[in-house]
Amino acid sequence: MTASRQDQAPLRRAKGxxxxxxxxxxxxxxxxxxxxxxxxxxxxxxxxxxxxxxxxVAVGGAALAVLSGLWCTFLTWRAxxxxxxxxxxxxxxxxVFFLGQLGKYVPGSVWPALAQMELGRDxxxxxxxxxxxxxxxxxxxxxxxxxxAVVTIPxxxxxAYGRYLxxxxxxPALLVVLHPRVLNRLLAITLRVIRRxxxxxxLTGRGIVHATxxxxxxxxxxxxxxxxxxxxxxxxxxxxxxxxxxxxALTVGFLLVLAPAGAGVREAVLVLLLSPxxxxxxxxxxxxxxxxxFTAGDAAWAALGATAGRAALxxxxxxxxxxxxxx
Length: 327
Known about the structure:
By secondary structure, this protein is mainly α. The chain has one domain (about 20-50, about 55-305). It contains 13 helices and no strands. It has helices at about 20-50, 55-85, 90-100, 110-120, 125-150, 160-165, 165-170, 170-175, 180-195, 205-230, 240-255, 265-275, 280-310. α3 packs antiparallel against α4 (about 110-120). The model is unreliable at about 1-15 and about 315-325 (pLDDT under 50).
């Protein structure tokens, strides 16, 4: 079923006893919040000794850049979902995307996709469309991040470039896969294999370009946040060089998932790439502070998305999920 061009408001919930599915959703949401709280507590313990070395202006500017960059990632996903025939308003989309993103703090890489597939049901978005959108979103943001790294990491020196050349070698394959014809073919084959109906609309070149623009904007802002922190701690690297370092670190952390949200991997790579331009201890402070800002940013947008989404529900109340749309 194809959605209209107007955002589908969540259907009215049935009154009375909550369904087992509603209870399960509540339990899963509480689990996401617990894992997020644990992540925030861990990050705070790590970053608290370093905060005295950073100026409030640098931290505030970096936090604003992170929040803006995260919003751009949401717009990337929203553009892809709209291209598949299911446009969502900012309020409805933010509820689905940002609450779903909390799943990355739970061990296992599938939780964000599963959460967004479940939350999308409230807006009559079939699971197959939500799943396709989040998969293409991850591929697109990773591909753009690798492209940024390819262009800018050489500014950090030949050693840095050579160390991560194997990761950058994946870029051509990603760019081929992100061609609309290739993507649509792969999605169609996947749906056929898992015995699901075809998507109501195919991805278009215009839609991919639109989403790519927002993805590029997110990397510009993420690079800005890292540069503000690094410069405040004495880094001599340029904005482009620091942006490349952060893009390389974040994409490697995504590709080599050893912990929720790439924890540990991202920080290690970022410290290695920044160390030539600043003391190793200062690079560690940048990496740890960056992680805290991203975790806090995810929490802030999830809270705002949940509030906006709740206000969009009938009578401003949550309840049992909407009737199941086509899978």
